[in-house]
Amino acid sequence: MADSTAFALGVGALRGIAWSRVTYHERPPAQHLGSHYKAVDSAFQPKIQAPANACTNCEYPWETFTYRNGASDPPIMEFGTNPLVTGKLPLFQTAAGVTESSRRFTTAAITALNLANTEAVGSRENTTGSIRGLVGATGVLFTAGTAFLKGAFSVASNGQIDYAAATGLASETAATAARAFVATEGSKGTVYSIRSGLLVKQDVASALLQSPTGTVTTLTKRLPTEPKAMAWDAVTRSVYLLDVVNSGIYNKRMRLLRIAESGVSDELWASPATAPTAMPVRYYLQTTAQGELLVSVSLPSGTSTPSEWALLDASGVAQFAGRWTARLESSPLLHDVALLAPIGRANPTSATGPLTFIRLERNLMKPGVCDTSWLKNFVPSTPCGAAWDGTTPTDAQPLARCSRP
C-alpha cells in the first residue's frame, strides 16, 4: 500500500494513486512487468471545469510570483470548478491551455478568493524586475466595486500564496472603479483610489495590523466624472486615469488624466464627442518601470478594429500603437520584450480555457499611432514614418493627423 509519505505529501493531500506506465515483453524469459505509481491530486486537469465563456475576473495578479519559466509568457489567473471540491479554484491560463493551480495557494487564500461580494486585484505595474518574495504583497481583496480593503495576499515561506485579513479605511465603502494596488509602495503595498474629487492613499501594512492609516488629498483642476481604468506610475509619482465625461446632452468623450500626488489633475488628451453606443466597452491601463503607459480599449461589436492599443510616454504622446482583430477579454500585459493580448477563444473547452493570446514583440511595434482606427483621431503621436502627414503635437496643435500606409 502506498501512503502520503511515499510522495512527500502532507496528511490528507493524497487523493489516490494511478497506474501510469506498464512495460511488457511477450516472451519468457525476457518477460518483464514494470510499474510506476504516481500521486493523483483531486485537481488533475481532466476534472477541471474552466469557464465556458470569457471570464470577467481574469487578470495578471500573480505573474511576478508564479512566473516559473522566463522563456515563456506569464499566465493569467482565472477561476474554474472541480466536481470533487467545493467552491471556485484558481486556474492558470496560458496559450497552451489551463492548469489548476490551487496547490500554489494556501487554504486561507482559496477561502478568501471564494468570499462573496469581493474582488481580488493585483498590481497593474510591470514589476518583472522584482525578485520573487521580496515584495510584501502580491494582491489585495476588496469589497466588490469599492476600494474597501478586506485583506492581502503574500508569498509564504514555503512559496505558496497566503492570505491575511485586514481592516480598511471605513470611508472607502463607497462605489468606485478608480483604484489601483501598488505592490512596490510601502512595506506591504499601497492602495490608491479616487472618489468624490478625492485621491485616497491606503497603507496595506497598517490595515493588516487592523489599524488602517491613509491620506486624503483634494483634487484640483480637471475632476474625474466616470473613471474607467487607473494605474500608478512610480516614475512621475502620478496616477493615470482613463475617464469618460459627458459632451453636450447626448455624447461622451474618453480622456486621459494625470493626477499628481499633490492632487493636481491635468487632462493630457480627449477623444472627440462620440455617441455612447460607439464608446469603448472595456478600458485598460498599465504602467512600466521605464515610465511607459499602455492604453488599451475594446470597441463595440461590428467595429472594424475590435481592440486598439497605444504605448505612451509620460506626457501622453504615443510612441507605438496597434490594433487587434478580436475583442480583449482581459488586460493586455506589456513586459520587457513583448506585448501579450488575451482574447476570447472561438470554441473554448475545459482543456483550452476561455482565452488565447496574441503576442507582439517590441521590436515589431509600429511607430506612432497611425496603425489604429479610433485612437489615431485624437491621441497625440510621434511621427508614424513615411506615411506621416501631420505634425508632432503641441499645445496649439494637440491632435495627431496621420494616414495609414
Quick overview of this protein structure:
By secondary structure, the protein is mostly beta strands.
Describe the structure.
With 405 residues, this protein is mostly beta strands. It is built from three helices and 26 strands. A five-stranded mixed β-sheet has the order 14-18-17-16-15, with no helix packed on it. A five-stranded antiparallel β-sheet has the order 19-20-21-22-26, with no helix packed on it. Strands 6-7-8-9 form a four-stranded antiparallel β-sheet. Strand 17 and strand 18 form a beta hairpin. The longest helix is centred in the first third of the chain and has 7 residues. It is globular.
What are the SSEs and their pairings?
Elements lengths: L15 E9 L8 E8 L22 H4 L9 E7 L2 E10 L2 E4 L6 H7 L4 E5 L16 E5 L5 E7 L5 E5 L13 E4 L7 E6 L2 E6 H5 L5 E5 L1 E2 L5 E7 L4 E10 L3 E10 L3 E7 L11 E6 L5 E6 L8 E6 L5 E7 L8 E2 L3 E12 L3 E9 L4 E2 L38
Parallel strand pairs: 14-18
Antiparallel strand pairs: 1-2, 3-4, 4-5, 6-7, 7-8, 8-9, 10-11, 11-12, 12-13, 15-16, 16-17, 17-18, 19-20, 20-21, 21-22, 22-26, 23-24, 24-25
Q: Describe the sheet with the most strands.
A: 5 strands, mixed
- Reading side by side through the largest sheet, how are the strands ordered? 14-18-17-16-15
From the N-terminal CA to the C-terminal CA, the straight-line distance is: 70 Å
**Helical stretch tally:** 3
**What general outline do the C-alpha atoms trace?**
globular
Mean pLDDT: 77
**Quaternary status:** single chain
* Topology, number of strands: 26
Approximately how much beta-strand content do the residues carry? 35-45%
Spell the H/E element sequence: EEHEEEHEEEEEEEHEEEEEEEEEEEEEE
The level of helicity is under 10%
Rg (CA only)? 24 Å
